[in-house]
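Researcher: Let's continue the batch. This sequence belongs to Glutamate--cysteine ligase, and it's 681 residues. Same format as the previous ones, please.
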Amino acid sequence: MGLLYLGTPLAWDEAKKHADHVRDHGITQFLHIWDRLKDRQGDELLWGDEVEYMVISFDDDEKNAKLSLRQTEILAKLSTIVDDISAETPDDISVPNFHPEYGRYMLESTPGAPYTGSITDLLSVESNMRYRRNLARKHLKSNEVPLTFTSFPRLGVPGQFTEPYYNPNDAISSHSLFLPEEITNPHARFPTLTANIRRRRGSKVAINLPIFVDENTPQPFIDPTISWDRSIYPEDVEAKLGAALPDHIYLDAMGFGMGCCCLQLTFQACNVSDARRLYDGLIPIGPILLALTAASPVWRGYLADVDSRWNVIAGSVDDRTKEERGVVPLKENKFIIPKSRYDSVDLYISNDWINRPEYNDNPLPYDQKLYDRMRDHGLDDLLSKHISHLFIRDPLVVFSETIDQDDASSSDHFENIQSTNWQTLRFKPPPPNSPIGWRVEFRSMEVQMTDFENAAFAVFVVLLSRAILSFHLNLYVPISKVDENMARAQKRDASASGKFYFRKDVYATRSSASSAASSSGASTPSDGSPRKKDRKMRNCFPPLPLPDRDFVVPKVEDEYEEMTMNEIINGKGADFSGLLPLVNAYLATLEIEPEHRRKIEQYLDLIKRRSDGTLLTPATWIRKFVTSHSEYKKDSIVSQGINYDLLKAVDEIERGVRQAPDLLPVDFTGGSKDPGSIGFS
Ligand code: ADP
Ligand code: MG
Ligand code: MG
Ligand code: MG
Ligand code: MG
Ligand code: MG
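Model: Same format as before. Here are the structure tokens for Glutamate--cysteine ligase:
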């Protein structure tokens, strides 16, 4: 969640006076970075994952699974043992990092050092994730477990869902009807962020998820668990005045979204233009992998008609005023802003010729003054637009101690805005005074319940990123279609029954098609010599070739069509090769030990089976668990007992104590019981 300063955060009325200052200096800071590093070349593939956990506290007597609010203590313990850890940690694993997250029940872990492009590193991801989980597990109480679970099913229900209990009436930052103040990380940044979003917006955030209507769900559904008549905070009337919709699950606080767990991946690129190409290449992949990893069908104790978290988080930090949302005419504010600051990206940014202007068909409000400054400084149109679009947002948390900064050596003001634009992809410039290069972060995936699955998705995306770069793949579809896919990706059962817009011919040129083809078939290049295979995943590739001479620019509408998940991942006959075959073609360019190859196959097989429907998404599996539970009354309600059994089952699956053959391959043997093991018999 960005850097945590010790300092005094300003309330919104004060913070907003510094908004232009933060933006102006943020751009100055970015321009310093640009001047120093725009020509930087040759950075190797370094990459890393971020895995988020919720710490569950089981009460076996009451049969309740609660959120343990001991984040501060747990992190303190994990950091004091960090010195000892060096001794405990196997030589081949660097000491992992644990970070706080928004929820006071959450942890984030990252590998101690980024992985490189070596195949051994690629295959160490799962054991690295396991090691991190076990380390956390080892330092929890005996009734606590760190679950990689996207949304806590009973967050915000009446009664006790945290350990210890707190009354939501004390929610002085969010003014929520459902979540107590203590749900939030106590570091000043988080309550301030929460309160300033509410203050800037002029009301509480309001999210309405359609409820899953079952046989006995009352129609219309008017939620009896909402304190419709509470009058503690001025916003308490909002629910009654229309913020809470009938037939929906109403959520009114940042914690419902930022309290979700996800799986993120960051890749360093060879240079800035490759970072831009990779960023663009992964944009259409965002919604596809959101649908394929969908893992969050239960909200505030009810089954929802959606399978994933995205719109909840987007709504949970939506600080736009009524004017910006287009509800009332613009008066005080500068822009009508179509999306929350947490949402899908709006602009492809590569300067390659395959990025045709027609693809950037989303409305794009941007700060003209900042745009002009960047253009005058020599930046190109697309990157200037990208940044000045992010910079239409106000800084939400300003610390009085750090308002004046040395713009040549700090990037704090830049990061203040950049890191509170939470989008599907993040283009990460190098921090000042560090050896780190230009990076791209892939942010749409939901976290999976086991490290085997999380590793599988990490491995798949890394290999896909290599295929994109080395085969010069062209995955562009109009960005408005990517947004349509984001909406479709969240629907119930989207992966198995939905369709998504996807590009048919993914080769930028015929030469890129033939290089992909030659690497999958008999690998003899045109000169007849045997092809030399790479020993590790490369990061730097020749620039995109110019179009073939007889290249005819097709109509944009003819370039894509609606495809099923199975077709996108596994291909569609001669029309479209499919992402997995492209990944396999890339693998064929590498020299890989047979046993490493087999391990990679296990990961790719999970992706294949999830996408062809022979294995369920976590969301579908969870939904099935709930609806087939003996306590379930076909009324959409996920009771305390169902939740307890569900989370127990998830923990048992992860440890390999319980089988879930419709979710995981039958030979999956689980993780945590044996930290060193690879997880397969
Ligand atoms: P944030 O929360 O800002 O997204 P984190 O620091 O939590 O970022 O995680 C970033 C990920 O990037 C980690 O997995 C880390 O290992 C990885 N990483 C670190 N250095 C590099 C690098 N130079 N290139 C790519 N990834 C890196
Ligand atoms: Mg995180
Ligand atoms: Mg992080
Ligand atoms: Mg983060
Ligand atoms: Mg961070
Ligand atoms: Mg991140």
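Researcher: Any comment?
Model: The CA atoms of residues 360 and 479 lie 6 Å apart.
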